[in-house]
């Protein structure tokens, strides 16, 4: 799955998720897997209530957290790719 900054990301609606304090827990019924998201990953998950580009996700994270652009892009792309590989998100180019 090739994901870039202009890829549009959205939640896979079959994933069950719940916010607990600053974290999010999720379950894929299809795969039978359970996931726990740290606060930054949970923030990304919460942003995906509507489809958005990876670049837009990074812009919002850079506004909220003290992170350099290159590091943000690199880490968010890697994280989004993991979500995609697990089937937790849908990706459109």
Structural commentary:
The protein has 93 residues and is of the alpha+beta class. The protein has one domain (8-92): Outer Surface Protein A, domain 3 (Alpha-Beta Complex). Helices cover 40% and strands 29% of the residues. The chain is built from three helices and six strands; from the N terminus they run ββββαβααβ. It has helices spanning 39-47, 54-64, 69-85, and strands at 8-11, 15-20, 23-28, 33-37, 52-53, 89-92. The strands form two sheets. Strands 5-1-6 form a three-stranded antiparallel beta sheet. Helix 2 packs across helix 3 (69-85). The longest helix has 17 residues, at 69-85. The chain is globular. The termini are close together. The model has no long low-confidence stretch (mean pLDDT 92).
Essential attributes:
Outer Surface Protein A, domain 3, 6 strands, alpha+beta, three-stranded antiparallel sheet, 3 helices, globular, 93 residues
């Amino acid at each position: 799955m090739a994901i870039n900054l202009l890829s549009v990301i959205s939640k896979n609606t079959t994933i069950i998720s719940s916010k607990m304090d600053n974290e999010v827990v999720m379950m894929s019924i299809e795969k039978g897997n359970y996931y726990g998201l740290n606060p930054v990953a949970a923030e990304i998950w919460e942003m995906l209530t509507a489809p958005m580009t990876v670049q837009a996700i990074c812009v919002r994270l850079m506004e909220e957290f003290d992170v350099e652009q290159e590091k943000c892009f690199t880490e968010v792309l890697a994280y989004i790719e993991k979500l995609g590989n697990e089937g937790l998100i849908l990706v459109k180019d």
